[in-house]
Amino acid sequence: MKGDAMRLARLAFAFAAFAALQAGAGERVVRGEAAYPARIALPDSAMLVVETRDAAGALFSEMRERTGGRQVPLPFALAAPPDGGTLRAAIQLDGETRWLSPPAAIPPSGPVDALRVTLDPFSPMAFASRMRCGAEEVLVGVDGGAVVIEARGDRYRLAPVPAASGAKYEMAGDSETFFWSKGGSALVSLAGETLPECALAPLPAPDFRAGGNEPGWDFAIRGGVAALTLDYGAERRAAPLPPPGIGPDGETVIASDALGAAIRIAEGLCRDDATGMPHPFAVSVETDGRRLAGCGGRPLDLLLGGEWTVAALGGAPVSGEGLPTLLFFEEGRVAGLAGCNRYFASFELTGERLSFADAGMTMMACAEDLMARERAFAAALGAAASFDIAEDALVLRGADGAELLRARR
User: Fold this and answer.
1) Where is 380: in which H helix or E strand?
2) Alpha carbon distance 152, 141 (integer Å)
3) Residue 336 in contact with residue 360, Cβ under 8 Å?
4) Are strands 120-121 and 174-182 parallel, antiparallel or unpaired?
5) Which range among 109-123, 277-291, 373-387 shows the weakest confidence by mean pLDDT?
6) In sequence order, what are the residues at sequence separation of 6 or more whose Cβ sits closer than 8 angstroms to the Cβ of residue 100?
7) Three-class HEC string of 64-131
8) Rounded distance, CA 355 to CA 349, Å?
9) Is the pTM of this model over 0.70?
10) In angstroms, rounded to a whole number, what is the distance separating the alpha carbons of residues 48 and 213?
11) How far apart are CA 295 and CA 409, in angstroms?
């Protein structure tokens, strides 16, 4: 008990100058609104999705937030690429994109506090896969019996046509615009210009890691090499990463004769069966007549992206103005509104726990009820020992497993 008290005292939010908050956090946040001109009401279940990409086009941050009956314009806040890039917003209904904005430029420096993006109607696709064709990326999806591709800012709807092998789709009246799938690769032609051979690119990152228990196994991708460790390290295999394919349920499939295995990576929340730590991918390994199950991807990626707004403290709902927020950054820092004051802190995420430390806060005084909620929020962070994602909410739990805080995007 004495150790816990000392830890809570050390983690308590100390008063500090606002300049320290800015210098300590360092990262930029892009804030703005997404709207469309049509007078169409959004259902409560609509989802606002906003992503930023860096100057090279790589995904930098993402937020997903249910509108809950709110209508456009819808506010957003998420981490901005440090050297500039682009932001794009969408509104999804029942998991399908119905409104989509063109990319908006994020300047390389200075505040981005009032970015407004306009959403246009978007014809939904049943699923979408990203393919790399040389230096270009093409989005490929299905709408009914047709294939829809997005390339170079345009959208093409293609119908199936006979082919000697694979599956081929052409644009009506333009046989030189086609998509020809051949397993894990494809050929794409745009008005007679054939792009370099395209390969599925659904992997979450150039470096990826997954693992499971009983018996312990580990799979990793690094520097274009795939490595598989089996039976608690008793057997190790490595080989060049083959082009990924796609399975019948849309999962990424890495099949390698050199590894003697097929690895399936499916996007979706997965909890480690030993620690309970959540991961963004469910992963299985099929090898030597066995199927080994586990989780993959970084738990950190579940925290990054949009701003979390606290909806409950200690199991009790909170509402009104000054709701606490959390915005996590890649470098192990978190910042936001504590209720009355702005705060910043560091966090440590290991394979088993999440904890916060080195906190600072501004020095404003507010009404006592707001200050009491701020103290409760600070105490929740100080006592946090783990996190989970439940019903699209971030849940912080104490060492005893009790819920301390629940927040939504």
Assistant:
1) helix 368-383
2) 15
3) no
4) unpaired
5) 109-123
6) 88, 89, 90, 119, 120, 122
7) EEECCCCCCCEEEEEECCCCCEEEEEEEEECCEEEEECCCEEECCCCCEEEEEEECEECCCCCCEEEE
8) 7
9) no
10) 36
11) 24
